[in-house]
């Protein structure tokens, strides 16, 4: 891949085509090290973006760096303009695409809120180990380090920002939360068995286009176990003695997901497995499990 750390694809640049300029390569590559040495020799200093990426062990700034777009981009006219950077900031705050496995928009129907509104809040809180907000009386919990309030009166999710509750539009999260809180009916035992999607009672659902999405995770972390571990730790993940690198995420207090990275070998390409506590079969529908995995994947990839 001839893409520089800054995100520029040198394959589509005429300067590269005619041999006037070579790609900087990913920040962790030997190509980047050689480019920095050449820039230092010819210009007296390296590209600030490339040097920063290499210093921080980052391959591609737009994909891998939690600070992108940073001052190295915004205070320079190279390689992006202001409009592009503003677009990046805006779209990075939109959340995951609200699409089901078929690519159709996810719609949260009113009956989900009706169903939850008829539940006893204290029962749901006890079964899920979530909290009841003292001020509003609504369910409150942490979803991957984000504090979420389930407002059954306004029929929306709220997220705490700078000490204040703000309404959020996250259909995939909303559907998952409502499915879980509406379905749970007791304190199910946990820790008995860890299973894959093929072991669930509705395993047939997770076939074909409904397979758990892992391609983007493999592309990002397949050769970067340290980055994989760091992404999990950032979301509160607990390291696990499994595979070549692994951690446990807890998007809901009693719904763990296990992420396992297997590095490439002479015989096999890198792979990522996502496992569950067997109790997930009782508390989430197959579509909600798929949505939950997609949400966790998104936050692992997005550095936010």
Automatic annotation (TrEMBL):
<dbReference type="Pfam" id="PF12654">
    <property type="entry name" value="DUF3786"/>
</dbReference>
<dbReference type="InterPro" id="IPR024264">
    <property type="entry name" value="DUF3786"/>
</dbReference>
<protein>
    <recommendedName>
        <fullName>DUF3786 domain-containing protein</fullName>
    </recommendedName>
</protein>
<feature type="domain" description="DUF3786">
    <location>
        <begin position="129"/>
        <end position="294"/>
    </location>
</feature>
